[in-house]
Design brief:
Elements (H helix, E strand, L loop, with lengths): L2 H9 L16 E5 L2 E2 L7 E8 L2 E12 L2 H4 L11 E8 L14 E3 L6 H11 L18 H29 L4 H13 L1 H13 L3 H7 L3 H11 L10 H17 L20 H14 L3 H6 L4 H7 L11 E3 L2 E2 L9 H22 L6 H8 L7 H9 L7 H15 L8 H7 L4
Parallel strand pairs: 4-5, 5-6
Antiparallel strand pairs: 1-3, 2-3, 3-4, 7-8
Helix pairs in contact: 4-13, 4-16, 5-6, 5-13, 8-9, 8-10, 13-14
Length: about 425
């Protein structure tokens, strides 16, 4: 038994509240269960109850056993002085506030319908190892229920990403252009080099980027040099030119690389080598110095494909590293790579910008991600196995990732709209 189940029972009145009495056999009427508090303090704020003929307004605390009140030291915590009802599964000891006044207690174990308890145990207390708790029932949810819940969790995912974006915005003194620069850098590094590329971006004052203007060579020297990729001695004229340019930039702008995490090549496809991705970034920012306004004005997938139509410099058309060449091959950003940027950077960034500037119409951003094919990973594949065509686009695959990570993996079925439907017997 988890306290979450008791929260669910109280919040939705899933017990025989008409027979509810306090432990001292006083009549109890529940007028308002209150507001569920997910932070520290009592579990429900501003509840309204009537005990006998006395109306009480205050907070409700929920525990498995009454004695947990003392286990959690609530008797010495002033945050719990306004608790008007203690709701427990088992009342094993009388409970008092800090001022020694007794707290009315409601015991639930004899008020819950056996079917509700059986459904709860089947979903959350089954000892069989499962990928998700509701995997045998996942295909039973009607489309309306599933669609509405996936929409909810997708926006939760956007809100979570917005928190980091807003933190970055604060640290850059509200410079949206600089925030986009740092976000793009991180995502150009993909999973392997995300932290490294982010450290590179954080180590470059964005004012330097703005001062370099449209010089792709200088930009590339800056990026590769700050990444620590020009520190070796290589017999290559282009390498020597880049190194000399970076040394000049270091002196001019007082640059250092002490806090930079050097990027990796291990287990990367050649097109994802840091040299290639940094060169593409240099070409992108030298071609479009005010990328922020362009991104904000993009309202379709095709607009973004056109905007991010960037290649490497000429040298990298015959190289992946400085030491070995190959036949000429242009290395432009592929649509598949740009799709990842749309999913992980552009849509969250546009959503956060619109929210902060008071534009509540996020339809265009959602339409963009709905045009992108779903990601291919284990989570998406498993959901598609449980229910055919669950992930039809990246909007839904992102929602499914959020569902798995934030609900299924945390056994938070009682906070999940789908889990609540199962426990209520509505599936």
């Amino acid at each position: 038994m988890q306290e979450d189940f008791l929260h669910y029972l109280w919040k939705f009145k899933k017990f025989d509240f008409r027979k509810a009495k306090t432990s001292n056999n006083s009549d109890l009427s529940i007028l308002d269960v209150g507001i569920h508090n997910h932070n520290s303090g009592p579990d429900f704020f501003n509840a309204k109850i009537k005990i006998n003929d006395q109306l009480w307004a205050g907070n409700v605390e929920i525990h498995l056993r009454s004695s947990d009140w003392y286990l959690h030291r609530h008797e010495i915590d002033s945050n719990y002085d306004n608790v008007v009802l203690h709701v427990v599964w088992e009342d094993d000891v009388e409970v008092f506030r800090k001022d020694n006044s007794a707290i009315p207690t409601l015991e639930l174990k004899d008020l819950v319908h056996p079917e509700s308890l059986d459904r709860y145990k089947s979903l959350l207390l089954n000892g069989t190892k499962k990928w998700i708790n509701c995997e045998k029932d996942f295909h039973l949810f009607d489309d309306f229920t599933l669609d509405n819940w996936l929409e909810r969790v997708y926006f939760e995912r956007l809100e979570k990403k917005s928190v980091k974006i807003l933190e970055m915005l604060k640290s850059t003194e509200n410079n949206w252009e600089e925030v986009l620069f740092k976000l793009l850098f991180r995502n150009f590094g993909l999973k392997v080099n995300a932290d490294s590329f982010e450290s590179i971006a954080n180590n470059i004052d964005f004012k330097v980027i703005q001062k370099l203007g449209q010089s792709a060579f200088t930009m590339e020297a800056l990026f590769l040099g700050q990444a620590g990729l020009l520190n070796e001695n290589v017999e290559n004229s282009y390498f020597a030119s880049l190194k000399l340019e970076h040394q000049f930039l270091q002196q001019k702008f007082k640059l250092d690389t002490y806090s930079v995490l050097k990027p990796h090549y291990f287990r990367l496809r050649p097109d994802n080598f840091p040299t290639i991705r940094l060169s593409q970034l240099a070409q992108l920012y030298s071609k479009i110095p005010h990328l922020f306004s362009e991104v904000i004005n993009c309202n379709s997938k095709e607009d973004i494909y056109e905007l991010f139509n960037a290649c490497t410099s000429e040298f990298w058309e015959t190289h992946y590293t400085f030491k070995k060449d190959h036949k000429v091959r242009k290395k432009k950003l592929t649509n598949n790579f740009i799709d990842l940027l749309i999913i992980n950077t552009i849509v969250p960034f546009k959503y956060c910008y619109q929210k902060e500037t008071g534009d509540k119409d996020v339809t265009a951003s959602l339409q963009i991600i709905e045009q992108i094919l779903p990601e291919k990973n284990g989570i998406v594949d498993n959901f598609n196995t449980l229910r055919s065509k669950t992930a039809t686009n990246s909007y839904r695959s992102q929602a499914l990732i959020q569902l798995k990570n934030e609900y299924c993996d945390k056994n938070a079925c009682l906070q999940c709209g789908l889990g609540v439907k199962l426990i209520q017997g509505m599936v």
